[in-house]
Every structure is written in structure tokens, then in C-alpha cells.
Write a structure and sequence with these properties.
Blueprint (H helix, E strand, L loop, with lengths): L19 H23 L13 E6 L1 H4 L7 H9 L4 E6 L5 H4 L3 H6 L2 E3 L5 E3 L2 E7 L19 H17 L4 E5 L6 H13 L13 H27 L11 E4 L1 H13 L37 H15 L24 H7 L8 H39 L1 H5 L4 H8 L1
Parallel strand pairs: 1-2, 1-5, 5-6, 6-7
Antiparallel strand pairs: 3-4
Helix pairs in contact: 1-9, 1-10, 3-10, 6-8
Length: 414
Amino acid sequence: MIARTAPGTRRAARAPCLAPPLLLLLLLLFLVAAAAVAAAAAAGPPPSSSSSDRPVVLFFGDSLTEFGSRPGGWVLDLTSWYGRRADVVSRGFGGYNSRFLAYVLDQGLDDFSSSLSGGEQQRQRVAAAVVAVGSNDAKVPGAFGPEVGVPLSEYRRNLRALVRRLRARGVAHVVVATPPPADERRRAEIARELAASGQGPSRGLSDRLSERTAAYAEAAREVARAECAEGRRVDGGGGGGGGASCPVVVADLFAAFERLGAAARAGGGGGGGEDEGGGGGGGAPIPPEAAALFVADGLHLSPQGNAVMAAEIKRALRATPLSAEALAPQFPAYYDVDPRRPGEAFAAAFPGGVLPASARALVEEVTAGAAAAAAAEDDEEEEEEEEEQRRRRQRAPACEGGAAPAARCATLVA
């Protein structure tokens, strides 16, 4: 997505308070998320108390992903959610479409291969990836701004290729996020302001239309459904039916934003966060009552909009084995480590209960250094004691020959 704002188009910031209907919907969304956490907790504790494994969860997309790492962003929310259970890596590129992302996807995966000393290879596996692209693909041709839009048929092909490349590279679970709608009214205001100042097309058309974005969101759902069925066939040897978990799932941002918009328009009625991503409506514009989901440009998300995106991404990840609730924390908690025998707790976290050779070498180096330091400290104490004895003898030379009275010797030597 493109964050460019021409001179003279800056507008006053919106009031920070939410419209009451939208506030109610966000509260409902929070309650639904809390219920999902409770359900995960009721299913039982993580599979083990600790593990040496720390999977990587890759977020891959446009400026919604890039800006998600800013304060109040959805990427920071999920980073906190995963804690020490997974490494969250964000690869967001403002202004990119599905065509551009094809140039950089492999590099994002290659970043997690490194070589250790002793000939050992360590590959930090990307276990899950979230692909959030489509907002720029859906840009209206001929509207203001760079022509980053791509035809719907190409978007569908590109997205399918991105998902299949992730799967071919060993990413077990892929979340496809549908593009959310923009604040169409605000984008039209910017278009008219640019046209009036001679910096944009004279027609002053909005560069984002909810009805158009809805078609791209539906294409993303179709790709996810088809790749889910194909993944089940390949992974489980069966068809697209039940059994094996779905390796490709949807985070339906468009439907979530549309529900919030519809509820705000209706004065607080309707659902909010309950739908499981079965598809959105026809793409009605976001109403003014829900404009607080966006920042002043009407395109990028406010903290409230980021909270909606975070909730939908979490919901999708909970349909995989890679949710935060399903993962064990990496390595034992400090209170589970016996300071006298720490190796036992740490070895138990590795497969087979055995420390890797590299870890053993480092532990031996550390313990040998500690032993050497302790021995040096003992030698230093012995030397200090000998020096003290020498000083005492120097202070009382007469005592050695018996020339001084016994009482005086005791005083001199003490």
C-alpha cells in the first residue's frame, strides 16, 4: 500500500474517540478473542514444559505488514503473543503488489540458514507464514498514485504461486489474509484535493473501491480453499475432506472490516468477529462511523484497525498447530533449573535428552573457565596467607631468638 501524501492534502487528525457502535463491536471482538484463548486453555497445556525448538512465523506482505511493526501495530501484538515460543519475522514492503512480492519471497526464506563451527548446519525453519497482499493489486486503474494495480486474474495466479512456493520450501502452514477495504470516502476526498491542486487526475476518482477490493478478497478465499484441498491431498494422501488439518487457511480481514462497518452503520447491531471467514458481502463502502479504523489517509490502519487485523490473524493461526497456545516455551523456566545440576534440565529440552555437540563444547569451555578461575582464586588466597605470615615474622624478629618477653611476642605476632 502506498503512503504518499501530496502537499496540500493533509487533513486534521480524526477525533480519537470511536463511534459508540464501533466501540461496542470492538468490545465484542475482544470478547470473542478471549473466548478463543479460553477454549485453547481448556484443551490442555502445551505438549511439553519446554523445547529446544523455536519455530519461525513469517509475516509477508505490503505496507499493512510493514507498518504493523509500529507502535499499536498488529505485528507487535503477535510478537508479544508468541513470546518465547516462536520467532516472529516481518517482511513488509510498502507499495508492493503480488507481482512485486514474487521477486523477494525466496530471500525472505533464505535469511534463516546459517553455518556453525565444526561443520554443523543449523537451519531455522519457517514453520508458518502469513501472506497479506492485495490492497495494492486492487487499486483502481487511472486513479491517483502509481499504477500498482494488477488484473484480478493475475492476482489470483500470483497469490497461488506465492502460496505454493512457500509450501514447496517446507512451510507447513500458510495463512492467506484477504485485503481489507479502505475508507473509500476519505480516498475520494484526497483524490479531489489532488485534482484541485493539479497534482492528480482531473476526474478526482478514489483509488480504492470497496466493491473492487471485495472481488480480490474473494479471489484470495478461492486460492486458500483450493490450496487447502491440494495440501490435504499431498500431506494426507486423501482428498479435500476432513482428517488432516488444513495447511492453508484464511484470515478474512475484508469480512471482519465489512461486518464492523455494517454494524456501525446499523447502530451497533449485527455480528462482530463471530464469522469463520466464509466470505464477505458485496463491498459496501466503510461508513463514516467506522472511519476510526484507519489513519487520516483512509488507507492504512489505526491502532483500532490493527487490533482487528491482529484478532483475525490469531484466529486463523489457531486453526493450525502453530498458535501460541499450542507451542511450548523454548527452554526451561529458570525456576525449573537446579543450579547444582543445570545440565539435566537443559538436556531434557533437546531431542533424545542430549545436548548438541556445539552446546556441550561451549558448556565445557565455560565450566573449565570457572574451574580455572576457582583454582586461581584458591592460589591467590594461599599466597595472601603466606604473605601475611611473612609480615608477622618481620614485625617480631626478637621472638624467634627468644630475646623478647613472651607477652611482648604475643602482641607482636597477633
